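Weekly structure sync, notes
Attendees: PL (lead), two postdocs, one rotation student
Agenda item 3: pending single-chain targets
PL asked that the sequence for the first pending target be pasted directly into the notes so everyone works from the same version. It is reproduced below exactly as submitted, 376 residues in total.
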Amino acid sequence: MNASRKMNAPVVIIGGGIVGCAAAYYLSKSGVQVTLLERSVLGDEASGRNGGGVRQQCRDRRERGLAMASVRLWQELQATLEPDIEYRQGGNIRLATDEKRLSDLRCQSEEELQDGLPVEMWDQSELRRRAPYLAEIFLGAKYCASDGMANPLLVSRALGWAAQRSGARILTHTEAFQIEIQGRQVTSVLAKDAQGEFVIETPQVIHAGGPWTPHLSQTLGVVVPIVPARSSLAITQRMPRLFDEFVSSHDLGVYARQAREGQIHIGRSVSEPGETFDQTTPLPTIEKLARGAAQMIPALRGSNFLRTWTGTLENTPDGIAIISAVDGIAGYLIAAGFSGHGFCLGPIAGKLLSEWLVEGEPSMSLREFRLARFQK
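Predicted structure, written out during the meeting:
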């Protein structure tokens, strides 16, 4: 360790995805000097390798309130961030090919309406009227008009750059490899970059490292039950405007959205099996994407994929994020394990983390997201 390379920071954020960058953004706006460490570049992992859906419907009830609050923040961010993050509320259609799926969607709608989320159930005729581009195999759908989408390649970077303009120190290509404590209090983070290893003395760490969070947490003896999984996507050539909604079918295992420039983004709406950090895109997966997309939207039959890519999900045992202090270690907050739901939740997670540090507690309860829920 090069003792001559030392920094100080009131708060260190580990991870430059949407959650880490949102936390840096809101903390910096509150006047807190933040140092953010990212092992690659901002938004390079799951935050930039997802379908771009900003969805409130069809969620676990524990996180629905966060999603609804986050959508309000997304509207603010679209108006203030640079560059344009391409956020828009085009609606979200969740499709059903059989009565069982339709019944499940109906039950979800009743719960969502109770929680104040406006959703609509569409029968087959209404679906055909509202979304004639969809195949006739669907019996109905659930629709949420306030759901939407954004460009995942831009959002984390726009947040990080805005934080930087407000005084945050953003260190990319910089990997944190150890968190140090004394007397059960965080004291420093050890990191390395192209010049070698260095120390950042800090009393507060926000750990938003996605699927890599467990490895670093183990340096403190903290077990974080997150496993990696593969999430593959493809993009077509530019096409005439076909639809504005984000559409998905769990029965076909596929979702799609049309970007502003006309390309269709297609991804798997069901988890790919296995625990892996492998980011190759297998040929059978590409075939499933093409087949499912054509079954859902006939106009996509025979369309060309310009490229495919794969991200790494961070799954917890119950499919719900960990946004939590760690019992017995002062100054250590974890925000990880969003299980494929984190793109929408990123802004509110970052804002609540900022409130936690600046005001002493977040404005919304995070009790359901405690790490301690996994302890037997």
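Discussion points:
- The CA atoms of residues 230 and 312 lie 5 Å apart.
- The first strand starts at residue 6 and ends at 8.
Action: rotation student to compare against the earlier draft before next sync.
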